[in-house]
Amino acid sequence: MSNKKKTEINFDRIDKQVHKAVLADEKYSRENDAKFRALHQKVATYDEFKGIVEASHLKPLDKTDKITTSGTFQQVWNSQASSKDGDDLETNPLNLNLVNIPKNSSDFWKEWRNIKISEEKTNYLLKFKDSQIRQFFKMEIPSDQLESLIKSLSSVGELNRLSTIIECIQNSKRFNLAVSFMSLELKRTLQELTMKLESINPDLVTSMMKILSL
């Protein structure tokens, strides 16, 4: 009978190989996820796209993470781990430290066009003081952006801010002409938003209703 040499199984080696394969799979998943997020955010340059993918190894991205157009992201942390009350921490994907701060009306609308999600447009708008909004809306509001602006106001909860913004819209140049090209649906939306202000700014409500009825 021939003696067969027993084959020893190196469990440590197998464990290392499995661990290495798991890490490689996780790395692929993170980078692939980052690529899709970058494409969704429509980054401006390849360098920004590359930066997002390369930075994905710093911390796995979660579905709730937000990537800004500047190539950085903010992560929504577990509320139970960060707050005794269990309230979600408010995170704003459009921190003005991460985007170009507009110096004038033209810069504002250029940045506005780059934001594709209505909720993010609202967050961006509310970052500015009333005086800045008045300055941005002093000139004519681009006709192709007026609809997205009005619709973004639906999630503005603070009536004083809403009043200021609607008043700025009304006082913008050629607004009366823009109203004549509005759809009935958009007019109705603006009417409903304005009616919320009846208790704090009845004069604005009266003047806006008059314009919308023309």
UniProtKB/TrEMBL annotation:
Domain RNA-polymerase II-associated protein 3-like C-terminal: 102-184
Cellular compartments annotated: Cell projection, Cilium, Flagellum; Cytoplasm
Coiled-coil stretches: none
InterPro entries in UniProt: CC103, Dynein_attach_N, RPAP3-like_C
Domain spans labelled Dynein attachment factor N-terminal: 9-78
Gene Ontology biological process terms from the UniProt entry: determination of left/right symmetry; epithelial cilium movement involved in extracellular fluid movement; inner dynein arm assembly
One cellular-component annotation, GO: extracellular region
Entry keyword set: Cell projection, Cilium, Cilium biogenesis/degradation, Cytoplasm, Flagellum
Main location: other
PANTHER family recorded: COILED-COIL DOMAIN-CONTAINING PROTEIN 103
Record text on subunit structure and interactions: Homodimer.
Job of this protein: Dynein-attachment factor required for cilia motility.
Protein name: DgyrCDS4711
Species of the source: Dimorphilus gyrociliatus
Organism lineage: Eukaryota, Metazoa, Spiralia, Lophotrochozoa, Annelida
